[in-house]
Amino acid sequence: MLTQYINPPLNRLRISGMIKTTNFPLVWITGASTGIGRALAVKLAAHGSKVVVSARNQEKLCTLAAEAQSLAGDIFAIPLDVTDKERVKHAYSAITRDYGIPDLCVLNAGTYIPMDAAIFSADTFAKQIDINWMGVVHALDAIIPDLVDRGSGRIAVVGSVSGYRGLRTAAAYGATKAALINMCETLHMELADYGIKVQIVNPGFINTPLTAKNDFRMPSLMPVEKAANALHRGLLSDRFEITFPMRFTWMVKLMRLLPYAIYLPLISWVTKKKS
Predict the structure, then answer these.
(1) Which of 11, 152, 172, 248 could bond 125 through an S-S bridge, CB–CB 3.0 to 4.6 Å?
(2) Of 5, 92, 173, 260, which is the active-site residue?
(3) Which domain holds residue 87?
(4) What whole-number distance in Å separates Cα of residue 49 and Cα of residue 42?
(5) Which of 53, 27, 78 is nearest to 232 (CA)?
(6) In what order do the strands lie in the sheet with 26-30?
(7) Is residue 261's pLDDT more than 90?
(8) pLDDT digits over 31-54, tens only?
(9) Cβ proximity of 30 and 109 under 8 Å
(10) Is residue 275 part of a domain?
């Protein structure tokens, strides 16, 4: 069920405070009600940014805003379902009308539905494609024309190390993240000609409500606050890929070089179900 779009002049939440100098005066974050998106919103607002947060859950956005009253920047909430292309456009239009064109867009909305291959489900694939893949595409469709016209801006798309190679229970989820990585590689090259920086964010295992669904071992599980700090540092850099925790994600990167005869049994053992 789609979350009703809330007209910002009447229903948005505004938390005001002193404005500090920041590299990102105006930020839009999707998927900001929980996990990394929520923690990053707090981090950026603490550094003086004006942050527009979007997610389907209005109640959680209200809670986020209420907890942010002492921060240096501002937080505005616009509930949104990224699977609805027209509502994404309406939300983005409201942002540009009331605040201007964002300096940074963090496209973080996503879901993870573990799927055992023995219980294969086309519906599980479709839901994750709609949110993880098309949700980002809908936002990009709204954002890119304005950034091209302005000749500047930064877009960070949240993928996952599961997009590198196959991982247990992630046949659908990993496929959507692999698609995001491939797309961002192309956008990075092409949009650079227009002064737009595109980054892909590939976290490892982060302690969020999504990873809580896993029933296998998660090496180097990272607290969400530390993940948000790492993401914030990456956004301030010129790196194309932002990845953390570094020891785990670089191990996974190196494992991409392994032949299947070694990789598949190794990753199967590393992520085997908890006994």
Answers:
(1) 172
(2) 173
(3) 8-270
(4) 10
(5) 27
(6) 14-15, 74-77, 50-54, 26-30, 104-107, 153-158, 196-203, 241-244
(7) yes
(8) 999 999 999 999 999 999 999 999
(9) yes
(10) no
Domain harbouring 65, CATH code: 3.40.50.720
Q: Residue 100: its pLDDT value, please?
A: 96
Q: Are strands 104-107 and 74-77 parallel, antiparallel or unpaired?
A: unpaired
Q: Which residues pair with 52 in a beta bridge?
A: 28, 76
Selection from 54, 47, 1 nearest residue 24 by Cα: 47
Residue 109 pLDDT greater than 70, yes or no: yes
Residue, of 127 and 218, whose pLDDT is higher: 127
Closest CA to 108 of 156, 147, 153: 156
Query: Kind and range of the H or E element at 16?
Result: none
Q: How many domains does the chain have?
A: 1
List the beta bridge partners of residue 243. 202
92 within some domain: yes
* Chain center to CA of 116: 24
Question: What is the SS3 assignment for 11?
Answer: helix
Using CA atoms, how far apart are residues 33 and 44, in angstroms rounded to an integer?
A: 15
Judge whether 173 counts as a catalytic residue.
Answer: yes
Place of tokens 């294969």: 120
* 63 Cβ contact partners less than 8 Å away, ≥ 6 residues apart: none
> For residue 240, is pLDDT > 80?
yes
Contact (CB, 8 A) for 125 and 172: yes
